[in-house]
Design a protein that fits this description.
By secondary structure, this protein is an alpha+beta fold. It is about 35% helix and about 30% strand. It has one domain: Ribosomal protein L5 (50s Ribosomal Protein L5, Chain: A).
Length: about 140
């Protein structure tokens, strides 16, 4: 199954970090104190905050289940039809969620200004596409 998960969020100066952390906790059960916050400068010199959280085995499996259960059917189908684009050479599974929609309590996919989540498989699941098959099974369950 899933060994660990890493979540990355870029928060612009005009966005509310507390609201984003609160929604991450509300929708995904990720405690606010799990996130490390660092400051950086954007391309145009604007201030941005970088949020990063690492989740363990149990949190990771629960998180993927929550995401799948909250995605609309058409978005689940999109992931399934483009599944090869969601895995890297180490068989990590990536999903990007719309940050603004999440702040409104909606879970949807997005490639723009998104919450980037990487699910890393347990080594034994990382052979012969077992992890990929497992993820597909999760997306196709009713």
């Amino acid at each position: 199954m899933i060994l660990s998960t890493t979540i990355h969020v870029v928060v612009h100066a005009t966005e509310d970090i507390a609201k984003i952390l609160s929604k991450m906790n509300e929708l995904f059960a990720i405690p606010k104190d799990k996130f490390l916050i660092s400051q950086a400068r954007g391309h145009w010199g604007n201030e941005i905050s970088l949020l990063k959280a690492d989740c363990d085995y149990k949190e990771s499996n629960d998180l993927l289940g929550r995401i799948i259960s909250l995605l609309r059917t058409n978005e689940k189908n999109y992931v399934l039809h483009s599944i090869s684009d969601s895995f890297d050479e180490k068989d990590n599974f990536y999903i990007r969620l719309d940050k603004q929609d999440m702040c409104n309590g909606i879970i949807s996919l997005s490639d723009h200004d998104s919450i980037r989540i990487r699910f890393k498989p347990i080594k034994e699941f990382n052979q012969n596409n077992k992890f990929r098959d497992h993820v597909i099974d999760l997306f196709t369950k009713k």
